[in-house]
Amino acid sequence: MRLYTRTGDGGQTSVKGGRVRKDDIRVDTYGTIDELNSFVGQAAAVAAREGKQEALVAELLEIQQELFDCGSDLAFADPAGREFKMDAQPAERLEQWIDAHISAAPEVTRFILPGGSETSAVLHVCRTVCRRAERRVVTMASEMEINMDVLKYINRLSDYFFAAARSANAALGVPDTEYVRSAEVFRKKKKP
Prior knowledge:
Distance between the termini: 62 Å
Strand content: 5-15%
CATH architecture: Up-down Bundle
CATH superfamily: Cobalamin adenosyltransferase-like
Helix content: 55-70%
Protein name: Corrinoid adenosyltransferase
CATH class: Mainly Alpha
Radius of gyration: 18 Å
Number of strands: 4
Structural class: mainly alpha
Largest sheet: 2 strands, antiparallel
Number of domains: 1
EC number: 2.5.1.17
Pfam family, one: Cob_adeno_trans
InterPro entries: CblAdoTrfase-like (IPR016030), CblAdoTrfase-like_sf (IPR036451), PduO-typ (IPR029499)
Number of helices: 5
Family: Belongs to the Cob(I)alamin adenosyltransferase family.
Shape: globular
């Protein structure tokens, strides 16, 4: 297989159903999701090396598959009438994972600084790249029809990375570092 094709030398690339400029919002959006996927792969590798996080590694590998699905769904030149790979189920499953990670970490009332363990630090990078990807998906959705389940998933995914980063620190016995000038922004939920 030859990796280079020379078909993009003029600044265009192929999407499903046509060709567009390489700086097209569609290409920028799924390219940002691809960047996120690379950081998720790094997070999985670091978590596997640091140990005690087999479930987290399995979750991250599933997320990588779903990020490819998101990119695929966003790559249609005309998404009308297409069958998408993403539906509501992956975002719902992320909510379950988020709840589990939250319960595995100490209560938090203030903003925290990204970092702690290496796994946590990389998961915070994933969170911030995910937020950028979400902004690109929102822009794309304002300009053309997209699979809105992708937007829901990417929105939920950034919350997942925050919760997973905190539980990774807890699993490794590394405390989160609070932002010292933060007010109490996370309130404890009152019991009904």
